[in-house]
Amino acid sequence: MKRMLSGIKPTGQLHLGNYIGALKNFVNYQDEYEMFAFIANLHCITTAQDPNELQKNLKDCVALYLACGLDPNKATIFLQTDIKAQAQLGYIICCHTYMGELNRMTQFKDKMAKNETNLSGGLYTYPALMAADILIYDPDYVPVGDDQKQHVELTRDLAERFNNKYGELFKVPEPLISKVGARIMSLSDPSKKMSKSDDNDKGCVYLLDDLNVAKKKVMSAVTDSLANVKYDPINQPGISNLIQIYSSLSNNMPYAEIEKMFEGKGYGDFKKAVSEKVCETLSDIQEKYNNIINSDILEKTLNDGATKANLIAEEKLKKVQKALGMEIL
Ligand code: AQP
User: Among 137, 202, 252, 268, which is 20 to 30 Å from 216 by CA?
Assistant: First the structure.
């Protein structure tokens, strides 16, 4: 069975973009692949977090993994900080990552371009830690949204660099980007991706949003004046984003079929249909979440996941340290 690994950083409440671009795919893949899904609680402190909020977001994130359908009997679900070897390998990989490579990473570059102050060293070096998160488990595939492709490409370069210098240490993983929903955009500004850290939460449907709030967000999504339900991301980015969401929540219904269904109908009708799909999805997730959040399944899931992940990670770290001459034999 081929192995797959991915993670989400709980910098806020998980949203529809995380669900469509990542979680929904993890769930589909868990039958076909040996799935490793972690909660990136080291990556989330690269930007300032309120400790109480972070703790709530972490717990919600694990509960949402399960509520969205990840099955702890199939997937290995764990917390990044429970696997100390990941951070240790992260440091080793960071020492092999060029500053030029880190300078090119868009997340850091974007923040620099906006003249944001007090950017942390962690934010600058996190792509090296992300490479370690991945390479330590030798996955074949890394399913990510469009925005994370650059990081997987850096991970591949780093794996090859290590393999060339020290002998075969890492499998070179492939990014797996889904055709539908790889980049869900903000409902209030379809030029920006839907993001946890967006200041304007009208553009972001959170998985735990009250259904009336979620409906209102979809009904007020920014569209255009062309009055034509058509997938045309250049000229109709808002409507195209809603088509993407509708398609993804309807078993990837082809865009042409959606266009046909809503031919001659107004945007109000289309938005209502999208909001119904969104609310159906959220309602199902929230019902499961409510049953899980206060049960002991969260602790058991993380303990079991950490035990399994640690075995693999520690063995790999040892192999790397030995190859680099860092251990006294
Ligand atoms: N809008 C999106 N559309 C499709 N996929 C998305 N993902 C995130 N946003 C979208 C995918 O979700 C996975 C987990 O991402 P993450 O939370 O670890 O990091 P992120 O991409 O930085 O997410 P956010 O919401 O934008 O967080 P902040 O605001 O903190 O930076 C990844 O596979 C990602 O591609």
Answer: 252
Q: Which residues line ligand 1 (CB under 6 A)?
A: 8-9, 11, 17-18, 20-22, 40, 144-145, 147-148, 181-184, 193-197
Q: Token match 């060339």: residue?
A: 164
CA atoms of 79 and 66, how far apart (whole Å):
14
The whole-number pLDDT of residue 23 equals 92
Catalytic positions are: 111, 193, 196
Q: How far apart are the first and last CA of the chain?
A: 34
Closest CA to 153 of 174, 181, 177, 126: 174
Examine the pLDDT at 146 and tell me if it is beyond 80.
no
Is the predicted pLDDT of residue 111 greater than 90, yes or no?
no
Pocket residue to mutate for ligand 1, from 148, 178, 188, 204, most atoms within 8 A of Cβ: 148
List alpha helices for the chain, DSSP H.
16-18, 24-29, 51-67, 84-94, 99-103, 106-113, 121-135, 149-166, 211-219, 237-248, 255-261, 267-292, 297-323
Domain ranges (residues) in the chain: 3-182+295-323, 201-290
- pLDDT over threshold 90, residue 179: no
Q: What is the 3-state secondary structure (H, E, C) of 281-322?
A: HHHHHHHHHHHHCCCCHHHHHHHHHHHHHHHHHHHHHHHHHH
Tell me the mean pLDDT in the region 115-128: 92
What is the pLDDT of the chain when averaged over all its residues? 95
Rounded to an integer, what distance in angstroms lies between the CA atom of residue 204 and that of residue 187? 6
* E strand or H helix at 4: strand 3-8
Atom of ligand 1 nearest to the CA of 182: 4
Q: Give the residue-averaged pLDDT of 55-71.
A: 97
- Fold type of domain 3-182+295-323: Rossmann fold (3.40.50)
pTM above 0.85, yes or no: yes
CATH of domain 201-290: 1.10.240.10
With a cut of 90, say whether residue 107 has pLDDT above it.
no
pLDDT at 177: 82
